[in-house]
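Form 7-S
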Amino acid sequence: MIEITADMEAIIKQAILSFIATVNEDGTPNLSPKASLMLRNGVLYFADIASPQTITNLKRNPAIEMNVVDIFQRRGYRFKGQGLVLSYGDDEHSTIVDDVRATNGPEYLVDHVVKIEPTSITPLLVPAFVFADPGRSHEHLLPEARYETRFGMGMGSEGNEDQPTPYNSGASIRILGASRAIN
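Output:
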């Protein structure tokens, strides 16, 4: 079994969505977003809330690929491997269902639980990591670093409480196509 590193675990915890690809019966890809990806004791799982095609595909062909990206760090990981649909009553199934309901409420319906057994894991990097000369670390691509480079002031207020920043001026910024007010 391939080890999931601490960095991979951090990306999984920070990611809002992961995207699961399976293979339809006609050989075309099926891509499904998942907000239920979790890591328990070094093993990846996701709860099927409303993805009947994903489950049908995995029961016929367990090939799976999953991309997990932290959109703010602009990096993540690609996990390729096998997806095993766990049976009701299985201890792992029950644990994941309990975790989902503890997080989202007891009325949250979980149809299936899938255990992902990765056969390969590769990093996903934006072009600025790959093509920049000199190369850049992910810290250079964080919104705070880009803002400071572009405007000459930080986004935080470390010792600069009187200096306006997006966090204390009520300004809005656009990050990866999504607008958000910063107060």
